[in-house]
Amino acid sequence: MPRCRIDGRDIDVPSGTTVLEAALDHGIHIQYFCWHPDLPVDGNCRTCMIEVEKMPKLQIACNTVITDGMVVRTDSDKARDAQRTALEFILINHPIDCPVCDQAGECYLQDNYMRYGLYDAKVELEEKVRKRKVVDLGPIMLDAERCVLCSRCIRFEAVVTGTNSFEFVNRGDHTEIATFENRPITHDYAGNLADVCPVGALLSHDFRFKMRVWFLKSHESVCPGCSTGCNVFVDERDGEVQRLRPRRNAEVNKSWLCDPGRALYKEIGVTGRLSGARVRGAGDGTTVGAALDLVAVKLKEAGAASAFLASPQGTNEDLHAFKTLAEAVGGKLDFRVGEPHLKVRERIDHVLQRADRNPNTQGCLDLGLDRDGVGAILDACRAGKVRVLVLQGPELLRVPEAVDAVAKAAFVVVMATHEGAELDRAHCVLPAALWAEVDGTFTNYQRRVQRVRAAVPAPGDARPRWELAAGTLERLGKPLGATSAREIFMLLSGVTPDYGGLDYRAIGAQGRALPLAGGTGARAQEARA
Amino acid sequence: MASSATVFIPPEVLAKAPARVLKEALGERVLAIDDFRGDLAITVEGRAWVEAARLLRDHPECDFRLFLDLCGVDYLDQGGRDARYEVVLHLYSVSTRHHVRLKTPVPEANPRLDTLTGVFKGADWFEREAWDLYGIEFVGHPNLVRLLTHDSFVGHPMRKDYPTAKRHVLKTPREMLLPVPAGSEHLLVNIGPSHPAMHGTFRVQALLDGESIVDAAAEIGYMHRNFEKMAEERTYWQIIPYTDRLNYCSSFMNGHGWALAVEKLLKIPAPPRAEAIRVILSELSRIMDHIVCVSTNVVDLGAITPFFVMFRAREAIYDLLDACCGARLTVSYVRIGGLGDDVPEDFEARCRHALAVVREVWDQAHALLTRNVIFLRRFKDVGVMSREDALSWGWVGPCLRGSGVAYDIRKDHPYSGYETYDFEVPVGTVGDCFDRYLVRMEEMRQSMRIVEQALAKLPGGPVITDDKRVALPPKSEVYSNIEALMNHFKLIYEGILPPPGEVYGYTEAANGELGFYVVSDGRKHPWRVKVRPPCYNIYQAFPHMIRGRLIADAVAIIGGLNVIAGELDR
Amino acid sequence: MAATVVSVDRNVKPGVGPILLGLWITLGNFMKSLFLRRASTIQFPEQKRNISGRYRGIHVLTEREDGTPKCVACFMCATVCPAECIYIESGERPEATIEKYPTRFEIDLLRCVYCGFCVDACPEEAIIMSRENDLVGTTRAELIIDRERLMARNKLVEHGPGYRPSDHDVRRPVRIAALERLKSEYGIVPGPPRA
């Protein structure tokens, strides 16, 4: 492992590490624009200039590989001067757009000017080169004047999506970024272009002018859109989620997030949400407590003549509580409505998305919820053997082929997050909290256990699914033995193979990968892809 | 912000008397010694707390007899610390002219600490406040009940996990502040809070034997707005309007003190012109405050005329402030690093006019009062505060100087260029109301001297530092180039980012030492701001001063203490 | 330091003299107020106080030549306000050079502390303060002033503008020095950009 000294600190790094990577890993800040941890190095911005002992000219930190004994200074007068000058050069033609530019608050130019610039400007407004502004490219907006020509978008399109939408046009200080004929971006990863752009040249059309980012509070979580489980930040202000942003996880999603996943923030909130319990025939104003009383009574009567269908939308904690309830009552148990377990590893594009649109199918499998078979349960319903059908999510109610079976069950309970016509098929509706409103864990397709954290409060009476199950267990005289998601995880880690010894702290912010179950070397490798 | 136990401490710091004395006496129980920005701060174990305080007070080389401040700090979720809370004590030695800070960690699991009321009289209310706001229990405190919040308040509001927006509805006042012996024939009377003699809103409950006060207890907190909690959620710039509302009779001085404290933390000084203008406006504000104190004090005694006479001078100074910054009372004129804007062209003319009016009303007030027989009978030898007691309570300013202690920060630790002005510090001999009155009147004259000197040698130049990390760029720049626009944006939404550390900044406000203990964690909001309000210590002694005296004396005394509720309760 | 400390003089002799002097002073003040009209009080509302040109009164949203607001909804004022009394929602303007404007801009005049930081923070000179401080309303809602009423204040000339930026001088010393250096050292006189 080569050892180097950066700014007086001795640092050991794996061989092949560049100065910039080593510095950032150890908390030494160097400015950069064109470098990105998940894109190939380009070295065109020249802002990360550093002084390396024995090299007469300054080097760029992003492309200087560390050799043993290298001594680097990022803060010498020469280096600072070069960093300032490079920044000044980039800003020569930059328009005075800060008041109207959404990037303010997360703009590399603003942040780097305060750390490395702090010089007096010499260019007059009239002398700046004018370029195209407000070009609508569909999901993103292009403002060519603000572009610092770092080529991150070009590299992203080349390497990640393979669509090559962007290229530089014109020459000299008239160089602009453009798509062919201003054609819009049509792939599912346009949002990443706005993330990757360090300035306000490429901005999200959906987020345009919505909110200033410094008002937002970020919460770490995991996207529930599919079994990939990309790590996200939930950005909210005063309990209202304004957007989702990708959170870097080198093992899962790198720095990327798909557009359908980003759009999921719209389902959080109050509109269309189920915020109170409902019991058929009981009129308005049923409290959750009263509804759970009724459910407990029905379950006590039915005993083994009941069936439980878990939802792969639930967290592991939700699932464990639900399974405990099913076992306490003695009814049938499964989760595989729509056969998600067959799709959990199947990709639908070569970047991120997977066919299974549920975040926790793997968790259901790990906890052993694939027990009695959905078909068997539906047959039992049709035969009149199921008196109480408890659904952890409304998936079954949306399946046309199952409508007759559901109708035969004497008492149908469903936990749901949103209103929908299908809920009318249930006798009792319980309001559930969404992924962004609960603490918990999801297990993704590669058996990585990842934490979700509550970012906003649930609307009205909605509460976590585990809390609904725990409330029912309490009323049945068989309390769950846990009063928080954290405690439930401790319970389930004790009884689930491979989960032993895990707790929230061990899972941390980046998740914890479990060994791929029952896989040969080849399948395990394929699953990691 | 981790404890500095493993940081190298230079030998000249260790050689300072308090550090040396405590290290010798306590050995391993001294956990850390720090000297950030020249403030000596010593951290000791909780078990050694009282012993350390006593040593600092009694050891001849230390002689820290002036009790300044005691507060709690909550370091929830700040890494590198074993204990969640910290209790911080500030002391001053008049003889050696040094400040010192003594700190001790207090664990969350057992938030208790020994009381210092046996060592310093002034610790009483400060410990009650730390209990009220943080939940730190002081073992052995005679009366550990809530002070600033309502007594049915639930929770400890300054804790970091107490949500700022939480509301209580608390309507029932506390009826009895004093224990009344059974079968007593004494009369229990509330003086205040809605009483004209209680300038501001404070309440004193007095047990009366005829007109004599047998026992008294004070209740404060009617104007408690928890400035310190708000300060934890505002940037350093946004706190400036809040400081105006501390001592609102001389609001510029609060901003001046705050700006100096933050500038000390940043190590970025204001330019000379800004400092000179700050001195001028501070001295004029001091005159305004003393006018309020003196004239409202005698209104309570029945002499209404000096009030009408003296307040004309306040009008003139208000007009001056209006011309400078657009507001009369809550000026918000300072900025970190200087002032908001340069003074108008007719500044000097307006100043001279104001001084002329002040001189005129001063002469008239002096003629009306100082030799008036009724006034002398009401004031002379009433409310005597001895020198030792004053120091133990933590008295500062004109009240302390009235008791004979010549401590004036403008002379002992000059700031903003005070060392270049010629002025005298008036000091009393007996420590009664009359002395305090004379000291204030003389201070007004000395302030006029300072203003004239400052006007005469007012330097040119900018009124705010050119350090781009602190001062907003000029508007012409913001309108015309991207760099200044970005600078402007970053300063507005992110603000000033001082280095992590803590300082105690202190100035001679109208009532005495106004201190700001600022703890920074390097981010845009300060981690903790503690205001050391001068009239808090002064008013704390009031119930003790009036025991055995007549109500009429109590009224005469309270006015002369110049208790401003905004500063008292924060 | 000892030389700068003075003891106050407690030896004052009371007597009838000071009382008579006091009455004489008061009589003098009375005469001056009555005949010379030298009292500080003014007969409001017939007389108004002289308010300075920097007075921080009720806000005004300034307008462009075509009557639209100069404000581009950059949120600087809402961010810096210590009282959190400004509420803004932004929307799209068709002009590519302006892009943004406030669809909603409301100030809660009762929460406002009239500190003027919003004026300091505005990068477009879109919000200034007037010299008016007559804040009268019968309901709280009436005193939450919206964009229309803020724009309408442009026409109130009765008191005139108060606290606003005065620094419009665009001759920047750094720029001038740089141009002179370019000319003297390199013989370059930069001209307008090519189209």
Question: What are the main properties of this structure?
Answer:
heterotrimer; A: 529 residues; alpha+beta; Rossmann fold; five-stranded mixed sheet; 15 helices; elongated; B: alpha+beta; 21 helices; globular
Structure description:
- The complex is a heterotrimer of chains A (529), B (570) and C (195).
- Chain A is an alpha+beta fold and 529 residues long.
- Chain A is built from 15 helices and 22 strands.
- Among the domains of chain A are: 3-91, Roll (Ubiquitin-like (UB roll)); 278-528, Rossmann fold, CATH 3.40.50.740.
- Chain A has a 6-stranded mixed beta sheet with strand order 14-19-18-17-15-16, sandwiched between helices.
- In chain A, α2 (77-91) packs antiparallel against α3 and α8 (316-329) packs parallel to α12 (465-475).
- In chain B, the strands form 5 sheets. In chain B, strands 1-2-5-4-3 form a 5-stranded mixed beta sheet. A 3-stranded antiparallel beta sheet of chain B has the order 8-9-10. A 3-stranded antiparallel beta sheet of chain B has the order 14-15-16.
- In chain B, β14 (501-509) and β15 (512-520) form a beta hairpin.
- Chain B is globular.
- Chain C has helices spanning 16-35, 76-80, 117-121, 147-152, 173-186, and strands at 5-7, 59-61, 86-92, 100-108, 127-129, 144-145.
- With 195 residues, chain C is of the alpha+beta class.
- At the B-C interface, α6, α9, α10, β13 and α15 of B face β1, α1, α2 and α3 of C.
- β13 of chain B pairs parallel with β1 (5-7) of chain C, so a sheet runs across the interface.
TL;DR of this structure?
The complex is a heterotrimer of chains A (529), B (570) and C (195). Chain A has 529 residues and is an alpha+beta fold. Chain A has helices at residues 19-25, 77-91, 108-117, 152-161, 190-196, 259-262, 288-302, 316-329, 361-366, 374-382, 403-408, 465-475, 485-495, 504-507, 521-528; strands spanning 3-6, 9-12, 49-52, 59-60, 71-73, 135-136, 140-142, 166-169, 176-179, 202-204, 217-222, 231-237, 240-246, 278-279, 306-309, 332-334, 388-391, 411-416, 428-431, 440-443, 448-452, 512-513.
